[in-house]
Amino acid sequence: MLRSLRHDLWATEKLVGHCRALTKQQLELTVPGTYGSIARTLSHILRGDERYLVRLGVLPGPMPSDDDVIPLNELGAHLEKVRTAVEGIFTGSQFDPENVVIDAARRRPSDPPLEIDSWTMLAQFVHHGSDHRAQIGTILGAQGLETPGLDVWAYGREIGAIRQKR
Q1: Of the candidates 106, 155, 159, 105, which has an alpha carbon nearest to the alpha carbon of residue 130?
Q2: What global pTM score does this model have?
Q3: What span, in angstroms and rounded, lies between the C-alpha atoms of 117 and 78?
Q4: Contact 49, 82 (CB under 8 A)
């Protein structure tokens, strides 16, 4: 699971770096069927990461809101906070993937809380980032803009986990 989370954060960081070269107008591009603009989606990915970690008790509250778009130049600080928290999950002995989290953060406040196994929250963390990064790739591609390679193969090559046999 740690490797999946590391890939997720690597891919988000690569995408943020790629988007630094875009104009303000390009950051506001969107296409039907996606979450929203590139800027809003990047912010949503990181706010989502932070919300999962708050729910798991790894980051302190309050629960971050999606109301404000995180400026592009501030995304790196959010990434670093998330990366530190993720690494902390696996360096201590306190984290139990079978631990049940009581999640009262519901879309409709009147809905009852959920009981969620911690591993499920971490798997959703990875899926959520991948899904929204793909949406940004769709926006970029639909506009004829370059899309970065963010898949596990690219990650594996970069960290030396995929190499030519000697």
Answers
A1: 155
A2: 0.93
A3: 25
A4: yes
Going from the N-terminus, what domains does the chain have, and what CATH number goes with each? 2-159 (1.20.120.450)
Query: d(Cα 114, Cα 117) in Å, to the nearest integer?
Result: 10
Q: Is the separation of the CB atoms in 29 and 109 below 8 Å?
A: no
Q: How confident is the model at residue 17 (pLDDT cuts 50, 70, 90)?
A: very high
Q: Which residues of 114-140 are buried (b: 16+ CB within 10 A; e: fewer)?
A: eebebeebbeebbebbbebbebbbbbb
Q: pLDDT tens digits, residue range 47-60?
A: 999 999 999 988 98
The CA angle 55-57-62, to the nearest 5 degrees, is 65
Helix axes 75-91, 2-19, angle to 10 degrees: 170
